[in-house]
Design a protein that fits this description.
- The protein is mostly helical and 217 residues long.
- The protein has two domains: 9-103, no CATH class; 122-208, no CATH class.
- Helices cover 61% and strands 8% of the residues.
- The protein is built from ten helices and two strands, in the order E-E-H-H-H-H-H-H-H-H-H-H.
- A two-stranded antiparallel ribbon has the order 1-2.
- Strand 1 (9-17) and strand 2 form a beta hairpin.
- Helix 5 (100-111) runs antiparallel to helix 6 and helix 8 packs across helix 9 (167-182).
Length: 217
């Protein structure tokens, strides 16, 4: 797969099933992982907007949008392997066989996710989205610890002695701690300051790293 060239997600492919129209973007498969992710999100958005459509019809509509390399890949799978019966199965095949780096990149992003300059709400939503995309299956306590340890240290200190019984309750406590520390009117100013501090830390690290010696051999 190549990572150069214009976007390979073409205009939607309209498929009519009775009175239901399924509009799936064309996909030729000649793209990088980010372009695939964009196509996958467009497909899921379309599938969420329709009801009373069988999985067989969904698969047929999606694969009818394949062209180029993606079509060749699909034809090969149909001829040599059992075809997927659901969109979830097809999506897993695409990620595993076609864009294997996609899943590992998302998992790495989730592993090192921190609140940083984001609000508690934005950080929480980002974590939830990544967990969904990575198909993480873990106990509630592990998710609570994941969320807690990614929060700003000041907010973590406020939550140390707090009692909570669910992730949603921990999230609400974190939002309350954020407001308590900052005040509603100062939240945006605080995150702007954090962003500035992070940039300053990066610059300081750059200044203390000695320049590489030229190769004179």
């Amino acid at each position: 797969m190549t990572t150069q060239g214009p976007s390979n997600i073409a205009a939607p492919n309209h498929v009519k099933r009775g009175t239901i129209h399924i509009s799936i973007p064309s996909f030729d498969g000649d793209c990088n992982y980010s372009e695939y992710a964009k196509w996958e999100l467009e497909v899921e958005k379309e599938l969420l907007s329709i009801n009373n459509v069988s999985e067989h019809e969904r698969i047929r509509a999606i694969t009818s949008a394949f062209t180029g390399y993606a079509l060749t890949w699909w034809q090969f799978r149909c001829e040599n392997y059992e075809t997927p019966k659901t969109w979830l199965m097809l999506k897993q095949l695409l990620r595993y066989d076609y864009v294997p780096i996609y899943h590992s990149i998302l998992c790495e992003e989730l592993q090192f996710l921190q609140q940083g300059s984001k609000s508690v709400k934005s950080y929480y939503e980002k974590m939830q989205a990544l967990m969904l995309r990575c198909e993480i299956d873990e106990c509630v306590e592990a998710t609570e610890n994941r969320f807690l340890h990614g929060l700003q240290p000041e907010i973590q200190n406020v939550l140390i002695d707090q009692h909570y019984t669910s992730l949603s309750q921990l999230f609400e406590l974190a939002c309350m701690a954020e407001k308590q520390l900052l005040g509603d009117d100062n939240v945006s100013k605080f995150h702007a300051l954090i962003c500035k501090d992070e940039e300053q830390q990066i610059e300081e690290q750059r200044l203390v790293v000695p320049p590489s010696m030229p190769n004179i051999l």
